Amino acid sequence: MAEPANEHCFSEPHWRVIAQGFQTESWFNDGQAVGTGGILNPQPIHLRAGNYYYRFASSNSPREAQLGGGWWLDYENYKKIETFAQQHGYSIRDAARLMLALPYAWTRVDLKIKAILAVPMKAYAGEGKPAKGANDGADKNTSWIPTQHIKVCQLYIPGLFVKGCRQRVQLYEKVFASPVTESLT
Known about the structure:
The chain has helices spanning about 15-20, 25-30, 65-70, 75-90, 90-100, 170-175; strands at about 45, 50-55, 70-75, 110-115, 120-125, 130, 145, 155, 175-185. By secondary structure, the protein is an alpha+beta fold.
């Protein structure tokens, strides 16, 4: 098996801290909302090349945040969200927000990205943790709790985008073959 393209990230402990949902986004000053969710007890797993992976994103984020954001789903877990939406009369957007505990302040959840992994990678995987919404706006001090009766395994793929590394090609630009972005509005 070929070495994962982001293997080096698994010897750098801050990536696991991010996967756990601790408020490290402010350390990198990437302009996105500081989150509280993350993965409960994230475990490293191997992602196989040739498989589809999915991500929900926000149309008002820059392209590097849309494709280079670390939070992804494998096909099986994406299908859980899609099936839940169909069976219960939700839009895929609302089902994703509910099942993944995505506060309004974090993302619009108005884009779905589907991409084939071109090279082996590693990710942290596990069930999502509750997330704290913003103190105002649509979230108004809410706590978002992932659905308990249907568990969704979330993936955090470290190293896809590293702020300040503009001189070199970012990892997300090399590892995903033909990403497709679909509007969910």
